[in-house]
């Protein structure tokens, strides 16, 4: 690692928190959390049963939010591997009237946010996640994610984590732990035990209707998830958040405490490594390569496609050498862009066709090595008969584009808009259609300025022929608020 090392830059405002992971001066990941969109899923409350409904096999629980939350009998269960990584066991729910009573104080965790008139959905099956483990208070066993396919790895993880089972609870080993070290797992168990002890203390001392655990905010989650990953420096530009993080690290992640520092500089913290510019570039389709080649990245609902092109890179020897070097450089850029944009699901990479098999093998090896630094689980297949590489990357959160962008109001997310000429012809056909269906004295067309200009300019002859054909006047009115495809034909 160079002198720059690995840094976390944390930018905090009242409405938004952003975290940038920078490795050797180059932005690798961006995490964004907006205050208005934070839910309460994962929070733990000291609630009071306000009403029991035997007919519905459910109860309403007051957790201090003003709207009673909903607890079904099936959610009052023994501790199970009820997280996404592990197949849930099924239990026969008991009679709700035998499980809870009105006025009873009860510890519950939110599993679904309130929606409209409905209150939050609760469970008594408390689970506390860390980077590699999920802690299950009261349980006495270790479960391992079924998505870890290697039986040897499963047994290794189970054997090691079993050493930390005690009367406080059991664990689930998450998918992300497949390649974790014993030190990292030990750090996670220590973190979770300290966290559970703190929750128990609050349960004993806090009054009813209190929130006794809030699922970690972004800055805290990122620090939790980067335990043991070699972070050299953590800089935060908010004094209040710095003090909160300092206390958090003291209690739960003491190994990172020495890396934390407050950044008071007048220069915005995200300007230190040109992070703002890199975020903007990560929203573009085209990614320039230093050699002169480039990537084209298209994100769709079904999959992400990445196309590699040589561009202006001509190489020094021959075409095959140029293609190989461009593909080799592209593997590093692709791995970085997947992390930076947080692209998940199916990813299809269209490398430039290579004739030599050893070139294909070396490109695959380079891609695998570059992806090895990615915390998200990836799976790669070799080159297909069409020369494509298929891979998957586990979705951990929304992509950067989905967080920061919305569908274009003009193109509806297609990425293209109809040409001015196409819209002009649509307007001419619409006037004909309306004229046949209704009796009007004249028509007024409201359209975007470029379309209005075309109708009175290069397409004016077509408009004149139409007016002669229908025997009525058509007036063109530009509307600056209209997108290029929008128009209205109004009868007068």
UniProtKB/TrEMBL annotation:
Organism name: Neiella litorisoli
Keywords, ordered alphabetically: Cytoplasm, Endonuclease, Hydrolase, Magnesium, Metal-binding, Nuclease, RNA-binding, rRNA processing, rRNA-binding, tRNA processing, tRNA-binding
Compartments where found: Cytoplasm
Gene3D superfamilies documented for this protein: Nucleic acid-binding proteins, Ribonuclease E, catalytic domain
Name of one Pfam family that matches: RNase_E_G_Thio
Gene: rng
Domain S1 motif: 42-131
Entry-linked NCBIfam families: PRK11712.1 (NF008689), RNaseEG (TIGR00757)
Identification of the protein by name: Ribonuclease G
GO cellular component terms, semicolon-separated: cytoplasm
Named cofactor requirement(s): Mg(2+)
Classification via CDD domains: S1_RNase_E (cd04453)
Tagged with keyword Cytoplasm: yes
PROSITE patterns attached to this UniProt entry: S1
Protein family: Belongs to the RNase E/G family. RNase G subfamily.
InterPro entries reported for this sequence: NA-bd_OB-fold, RNA-bd_AU-1/RNase_E/G, RNase_E/G, RNase_E_G_thioredoxin-like, S1_domain
């Amino acid at each position: 690692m160079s002198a720059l090392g690995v840094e976390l830059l944390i930018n905090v405002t009242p409405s938004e928190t952003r975290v940038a992971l920078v490795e050797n001066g180059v932005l690798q990941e961006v995490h964004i959390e907006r205050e208005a969109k934070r839910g309460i899923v994962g929070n733990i409350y000291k609630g009071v049963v306000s009403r029991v409904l035997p007919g519905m096999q459910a109860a309403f629980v007051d957790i201090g939010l003003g709207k009673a939350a909903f607890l079904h009998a099936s959610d009052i269960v023994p501790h199970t591997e009820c997280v996404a990584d592990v197949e849930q066991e099924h239990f026969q729910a008991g009679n709700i009237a035998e499980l809870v009573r009105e006025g009873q104080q009860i510890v519950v965790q939110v599993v679904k946010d309130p929606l409209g008139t409905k209150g939050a959905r609760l469970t008594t099956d408390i689970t506390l996640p860390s980077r590699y483990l999920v802690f299950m208070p009261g349980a006495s066993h270790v479960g391992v994610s079924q998505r870890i396919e290697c039986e040897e790895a499963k047994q290794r993880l189970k054997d090691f984590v079993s050493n930390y089972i005690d009367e406080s609870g059991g664990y689930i080993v998450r998918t992300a732990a497949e390649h974790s070290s014993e030190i990292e797992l030990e750090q996670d168990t220590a973190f979770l035990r300290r966290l559970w002890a703190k929750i128990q203390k609050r349960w004993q001392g806090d009054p009813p209707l209190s929130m006794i655990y809030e699922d970690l905010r972004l800055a805290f989650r990122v620090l939790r998830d980067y335990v043991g990953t070699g972070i050299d420096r953590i800089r935060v530009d908010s004094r209040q958040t710095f003090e909160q993080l300092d206390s958090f690290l003291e209690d739960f992640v003491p190994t990172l405490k020495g890396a934390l520092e407050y950044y008071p500089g007048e220069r915005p913290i995200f300007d230190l490594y040109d992070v703002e510019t890199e975020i903007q570039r990560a929203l573009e389709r085209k990614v320039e390569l230093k050699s002169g080649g480039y990537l084209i990245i298209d994100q769709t609902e079904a999959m992400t496609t990445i196309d590699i092109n040589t561009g202006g890179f001509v190489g020094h020897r021959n075409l095959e050498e140029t293609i190989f070097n461009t593909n080799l450089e592209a593997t590093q850029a692709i791995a970085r862009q997947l992390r930076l944009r947080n692209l998940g699901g199916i990813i299809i990479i269209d490398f430039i066709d290579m004739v030599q098999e050893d070139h294909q093998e070396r490109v695959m090896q380079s891609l695998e090595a570059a992806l090895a630094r990615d915390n998200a689980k990836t799976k790669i297949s070799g080159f297909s008969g069409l020369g494509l590489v298929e891979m998957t990357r586990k979705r951990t959160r929304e992509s950067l584009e989905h967080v920061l962008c919305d569908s274009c109001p003009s193109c509806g997310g297609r990425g293209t808009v109809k040409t001015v000429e196409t819209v002009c012809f649509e307007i001419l056909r619409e006037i004909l259609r309306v004229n046949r269906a209704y009796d009007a004295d004249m028509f007024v067309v409201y359209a975007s300025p470029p379309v209005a200009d075309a109708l009175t300019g290069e397409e004016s002859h077509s408009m004149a022929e139409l007016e002669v054909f229908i025997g009525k006047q058509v007036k063109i009115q530009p509307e600056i608020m209209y997108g290029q495809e929008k128009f209205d034909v109004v009868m007068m």
